[in-house]
Amino acid sequence: xxxxxxxxxxxxxxxxxxxxxxxxxxxxxxxxxxxxxxxxxxxxxxxxxxxxxxxxxxxxxxxxxxxxxxxxxxxxxxxxxxxxxxxxxxxxxxxxxxxxxxxxxxxxxxxxxxxxxxxxxxxxxxxxxxxxxxxxxxxxxxxxxxxxxxxxxxxxxxxxxxxxxxxxxxxxxxxxxxxxxxxxxxxxxxxxxxxxxxxxxxxxxxxxxxxxxxxxxxxxxxxxxxxxxxxxxxxxxxxxxxxxxxxxxxxxxxxxxxxxxxxxxxxxxxxxxxxxxxxxxxxxxxxxxxxxxxxxxxxxxxxxxxxxxxxxxxxxxxxxxxxxxxxxxxxxxxxxxxxxxxxxxxxxxxxxxxxxxxxxxxx
Length: 363
Prior knowledge:
By secondary structure, this protein is mainly alpha-helical. Helices cover about 45% and strands about 10% of the residues. It has 16 helices and 6 strands. It has helices at about 15-25, 35-60, 90, 140-150, 150-165, 175-185, 210-215, 225-240, 245-250, 255-260, 265, 270, 290-295, 300-305, 315-325, 345-360, and strands spanning about 80, 100-105, 120-125, 165-170, 200-205, 220-225. The model has no long low-confidence stretch (mean pLDDT about 80).
């Protein structure tokens, strides 16, 4: 992804093999094709932390993006992940970008994305020169650490692959942590169909055997450079999604009336945490339910709730009674539980039932 950008040495931020060659040169060692992890580990011992950081800064800090890099901030993104340690992504975003960028360097606690797409998260999975204190993932030991201690952002990437189309640009898709978390997330009975949203791999060249492997794994291979791909994508998407409001209307069709009425501008901070649901904004029932997605662990959609795919819970009437029983003043109802216990499903079911009850009452 960073090819075409220029670092302080006026070269492209180097890829793995080139970085191994540079590190060996900095230590005055002959480079004989060793893997990056091996060279990096030995060079770090030889140069020390300060010496290594000075070399990495000259290669990956204060990078000037190529012209095509500035197309990325003109588009709306759900979330951006990178295994690069450079700052090309950060330097591509400007004040006039479609979204503001929140740069996150792992290890870091998980934060949900901005539901109104005003800002986008740029997650450095393997460390960043912008936060040297968190270290990097180059060596075999460091890769092992990504799986020995759970990384919530790798887990989020796999979750995102289930419900969103993901573009892989410049990645060989061979990072061990990714396969680790994907294996945990995608265990299913033999013969069960693949239910993840389509993922796309953008690469300027790919061997026929590697292409067959990617297709077997469910990826769509696009043979193009990153510049060619994003130039074409920018023209297509900007013709369809011309503003953030247009994006939100596509994302939340049951709230179009509220968006048209200007509710987003009036209650934007409140709506970052609560989704407004009224009887007129309920999502219409789809012709066919996507049962396989819901029962594979994906968070429920309003269609799933309308279709009744969630199991009936004995506690639901009690919850609804508590919520509707006291109408004096402002009250908070907190639903707490461990991850995967069904909080999102139950909250949506309660919202649905309350909205439907209001509709029947008004009739």
